[in-house]
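Record format v2
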Amino acid sequence: MKNEIKKVVLAYSGGLDTSIILKWLQDEYKCEVITFTADIGQGEELEPARQKALALGIKEENIFIKDLKDEFVKDYVFPMFRANALYEGEYLLGTSIARPLIAKTQAQIAIQTKADAVSHGATGKGNDQVRFELGYLAFNPNLKIIAPWREWDLNSREKLLAYAQKHGIDISKKKGKSPYSMDANLLHISYEGLVLEDPACFPEDDMWRWTKNPKEAPNESEIIELEFQKGDLIAINEKKLSPAKLLIQLNQLGAKHGIGRLDMVENRYVGMKSRGCYETPGGTILLKAHRTIESITLDREAAHLKDELMPKYANLIYNGYWFSPERLMLQALIDESQKYVNGKVSIELYKGNVIIRGRESANDSLFNTAYCTFEEDEVYNQKDAAGFIKLNALRFIIAGKNGRKF
Amino acid sequence: MKNEIKKVVLAYSGGLDTSIILKWLQDEYKCEVITFTADIGQGEELEPARQKALALGIKEENIFIKDLKDEFVKDYVFPMFRANALYEGEYLLGTSIARPLIAKTQAQIAIQTKADAVSHGATGKGNDQVRFELGYLAFNPNLKIIAPWREWDLNSREKLLAYAQKHGIDISKKKGKSPYSMDANLLHISYEGLVLEDPACFPEDDMWRWTKNPKEAPNESEIIELEFQKGDLIAINEKKLSPAKLLIQLNQLGAKHGIGRLDMVENRYVGMKSRGCYETPGGTILLKAHRTIESITLDREAAHLKDELMPKYANLIYNGYWFSPERLMLQALIDESQKYVNGKVSIELYKGNVIIRGRESANDSLFNTAYCTFEEDEVYNQKDAAGFIKLNALRFIIAGKNGRKF
Amino acid sequence: MKNEIKKVVLAYSGGLDTSIILKWLQDEYKCEVITFTADIGQGEELEPARQKALALGIKEENIFIKDLKDEFVKDYVFPMFRANALYEGEYLLGTSIARPLIAKTQAQIAIQTKADAVSHGATGKGNDQVRFELGYLAFNPNLKIIAPWREWDLNSREKLLAYAQKHGIDISKKKGKSPYSMDANLLHISYEGLVLEDPACFPEDDMWRWTKNPKEAPNESEIIELEFQKGDLIAINEKKLSPAKLLIQLNQLGAKHGIGRLDMVENRYVGMKSRGCYETPGGTILLKAHRTIESITLDREAAHLKDELMPKYANLIYNGYWFSPERLMLQALIDESQKYVNGKVSIELYKGNVIIRGRESANDSLFNTAYCTFEEDEVYNQKDAAGFIKLNALRFIIAGKNGRKF
Amino acid sequence: MKNEIKKVVLAYSGGLDTSIILKWLQDEYKCEVITFTADIGQGEELEPARQKALALGIKEENIFIKDLKDEFVKDYVFPMFRANALYEGEYLLGTSIARPLIAKTQAQIAIQTKADAVSHGATGKGNDQVRFELGYLAFNPNLKIIAPWREWDLNSREKLLAYAQKHGIDISKKKGKSPYSMDANLLHISYEGLVLEDPACFPEDDMWRWTKNPKEAPNESEIIELEFQKGDLIAINEKKLSPAKLLIQLNQLGAKHGIGRLDMVENRYVGMKSRGCYETPGGTILLKAHRTIESITLDREAAHLKDELMPKYANLIYNGYWFSPERLMLQALIDESQKYVNGKVSIELYKGNVIIRGRESANDSLFNTAYCTFEEDEVYNQKDAAGFIKLNALRFIIAGKNGRKF
């Protein structure tokens, strides 16, 4: 394959690893390298990535830097939150949901620049390689894929550093850079490695870069109001903002109040278990708020059908199948359910707690006190319950008369 | 039906409502009444119930008071927690899981005393009537059921009080008694009614009778260790106790640290939405801990299958189908998964937060650092990932070559 | 309720039972009766229904007769067949799918005529009462419903006939009329009652009114070609016809060749088991053909997701929930899957057998011989399978090294 | 790897392909080869396999020939039929269900003979390689696996024949041997290749080796009676036989009457579609009979739960996950449902048709005519249906009053 490739688009962060990959691609594949750096809210400046790419000999016109923050929140994060998606009951899928967008944009740049290959810096043991590559191939089945971590022999930190030094790549550690393996975007930060590799161990507090420790969060709670339209957040405290700006603000609120830390062992798609720590301050609030607004506006069976299908939907995202017929089918089902999910939720934030204070929907509330109090009402006749129970019990009555025991 | 009934077993709490029912049954049905009072950890003394029953003319031998606490936790709460059951994503099913045990015991007393009917004090708009009656009929399809709230015309608080006074039933309010409609047992306390009938309103803090407000919980966190065997809790801080005692201790810990409050609008089985507040201090810790010990001991697909079936299982319990073929089938599936769910979880409790500090399993951990770090290992060859991805992507490649877009 | 009702729309077939109901409504409710007779292909002339209604004193303008055949097939039968729906693995839902359309149209006539109630002739033990009434209420929650079979005391054949004779309703049996309880429409005929009430007994052959006995079907087989577009049948033997006409023709073909008889015991929604015989000649061919065209055009995971959700979808239709948020959600998912389900299926019909002879899709086939033969191809590298298997087996390898046995 | 392997157990049929593999293993791996030949009812004598192995230099003590027919039917086929398993709505999984048993036995022989590797003759594009290898690894995670088709360069029929001739392996075609790629066992025969590679083409009739063409089946039908106990077939026409003998007899009956042919395009686990023809004469009768006996003995919700989970269960078997925690969990659920599935089914076989004539269960029938006829009975009060419908409709009524349309 090595001789066939003329041009490759690399998902380039500007960091040490992808800089080494950049150099390695030039050397091993003797091909033109195009760098693609996406801003999905990881909180780093992107101009240094441009400078580093130039320094490594990339032509100005081959450097692509894109701000994908709004697309990320509007077309990826929000649709996913309509489903109340959690992987294995806990993980808010912060990394998983960003990969398809990067892969899609990278594949589009490949088409635009007539590149014949794409490359990424994900390792051979993780989920991200799958998410990237399924995304590439869903967009362009003819793309060749170079996954250096699965190919090269730089399979230890020492070899990597040696390679970098040999090729004049700056290996000085950024001041304050985390020693953990991190992934960050507008929705979350994840941490892996080091002490986390022992699931019995608890990480030191300065691992967390975003959220306050609940113990150090303000003693005063804060009450906010979130407004939803068709299942999507549209305003915080009555202020309408773009999707990305809403999530940024929600992140600030959550981080301040110590909300959204998660420490879990999860099952990777490639077959092993791994430990990860995640902080998802805004997302944690958003999930709770979305469930709450659904609680008064969504039909019971619609809600239950969503709940039954949610684990499958979350698996698809975790495993990298965002661009797939089955995800689109599930999304059609979910979106169909959201048209009346309109209203406001009042929430109190306090030292890691997300406390619901109230929920209301001007036009779409299905809650009506009259129906559930024990006094008579026009819609519900208590005597009807006898027939309801009797017919639901009929199969037990028949079975019981037949001698069956449960 | 009224003339046919000779003997009825009443689920009798000793409170005002079931005392009125007791009298009403005697008057309307002219039948012998047997009272059954269960101790499922509701935290009230049961002897007063005996005295009240005697005062209402019940014969000594017709008064049944049973301590069901151990059976409740061992055979109902723990099996349910093996499933990580949550109704509508949030509710830990504290009331739902207690009803079948009461119904079963009541039906057994009916058989033992040759009673031809059973009666309960649940209203005609709630879920409990269904849970009780499905339970009765699953055990004895020939039992007649008297549900006074669906029959009589005492359909307002005023009429009830008038009836009580007329028949010499004590209507003086117990000092400190909650004005809310409550249900309590070893797993939880629930609250309904009053201000909760407006879902936009937040209840005053003294509604909560069990858990500390997180704001008033200790400033010092507390670390505990829970040990599991085959998915069930067997020890706290290395001390083995009976199931009921374990849950009692876990409740104390949770309550002290402000853990387990929930305020939600839920969908009742009988068709309307209702607002409930719940406090489940021990259960909230238990759920998190159980998921955590599963995270290192349970196979991925076993875990995912459980997650996909959990909403259905939770619905069954919520709707009153504990004694049903389908619940037994799901339980068989769940129990089959738990044989390796052994190990310990370290947890920090702090102002409403349940923070996982570590998890370990001496013999049954499937977590192995070697498999997930990026260095080579004997079990996992990174190059295998290329084939894995390629074959999983094959259907996209074929579809893409056919011109399909996702 | 009896005095409140001024005008009622009756689902009127013109037969004896609904004629008695018509009279009974006039007498008991002293209200104006509007008759609604739908042509959904039951194969009876509808003009006699008009004459009978007039004879029973219904005003000309209160008689509604509607041809719903095209709407029935296009908006009900075809969407359902996109899902390959079968209730309890066998039943093609012929009666179930017709009821919502009748209920909807009847509710619309009630709105149009300012009627305050609707009435139907379904018994109190069957599924149809549920299907009608859920349909009415989904369209107009304020409608009152009169279900005479649950109200009156004409609870035996003798009493009914006596009532009819007393009120001058013709009780002479139509020559050749089946002694079975039948329901017929463009999709099927069903039979209940008589010898069928013993599930160990086999009905005599002249019970079946539509399909040939396979033993008497032609000795010569017949080959037909069905063409699909977006999952719907659009042509038979290259001839494009309206949905209703396509189904009529397919019925003729199926009936001639002894196709589509089914004899089963099913579980009714109201709690008991019942025996039914069904003949669905065209539908039986259509289901097989639709699965076949999907087999070459539908993505694997899309197909599997449909299969997993099909039983729930079929239950919804069987139980009367066609007009429900959950059915609409599932329909959105199913319809999303059908956009590439285009192509032709060749089928041989022979004495009860539906034999697939071939399938092709000009533009949307995902089948490619090159991919599945054992010789090399450009898309599939056999060595990739090793990695695919290895990673899928990883959890077994890890578990096995840990000492677990399966 | 080549030098590390000392002893390999080969799944050896005695045919040309596995004979070539045998020789190739000896040459390439320079290791001792143990042959394992299983009798799972493929209908070939196994002694020739022994002779061929001896001729290829295999030591007498290294030749294992095992009759697995009873184990196959009792522990694999029957448990699977309890689930009514069909892959993609049609395929009875005849090949899929045999592979795990072969893999398990082969892995056991490897342990017994201290072999360090196993080998099979499945190609790199099919499902069987996955089924074999997942089975091996579930039993012994340390086994090395040699899959010659993925390794060698004999990737065309010509090269294979040349290799055979060069090494003195008999390449003369057995008289009457099918030109199709076949797999046969007690449950089915499958066909692939040749004209089947064009899904628009119909195979010539002499491809089918087992079942009569329905057109040539007897003009006289035949009525048989099948008896079930706990969901398993135990007798045909009142004669109790071993599981294997029952299936053999059912196959004879089905084959004679032209029952069980299937021609389909299916989705392989490795990602592509493939065309297969299957004949499953006994299995086709058995599936229909099992559903029928369930129809009168199984609770409704138990049946529906099984139906909803069946596609997942069938996928697991098709994909090779028989030995997996998730299959065992589903099996526990299914087996729990079968304890009352006892009784007899009368079936008429006629030219490809399996016609149910009756079903009965002496002690476990839940069918009772009294419950479904329209006359009054003691168990069912028709008026109860009104309450049942009203409460089930409540969410529509509330939504409708809120202005929602469905």
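The mean pLDDT of chain A is 95.
The first strand of chain A starts at residue 7 and ends at 11.
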